[in-house]
Amino acid sequence: MAVKSSGTSPEKWRKYGEAFKAEALRLAGGSRSTQAAARQLSISPKLLYCWQ
Predict the structure, then answer these.
(1) Low-confidence stretches of the chain (pLDDT beneath 50)
(2) What is the DSSP letter of 42?
(3) CA neighbor of 28 nearest in space, from 4, 20, 2
């Protein structure tokens, strides 16, 4: 039986430091749109929502 991979493995996941997360949340808080802040930081809006 074959296991289907989603294409991303834990070894390839990016790790973000606490300083980056704090800056991202500051940007999202000062922005009208969390999605715009995520786009500016080149991260997924879903990730930014999780951090909030």
Answers:
(1) none
(2) T
(3) 20
- How far is it, in rounded angstroms, from Cα 23 to Cα 9? 26
pLDDT at 15: 85
CA angle 22, 23, 29 (to 5 degrees): 90
- Helical ranges in 1-52 per DSSP H: 18-30, 34-41, 45-51
- Looking up tokens 């300083």 gives 19
Q: What pLDDT was estimated at residue 52?
A: 85
- Domain ranges (residues) in the chain: 16-51
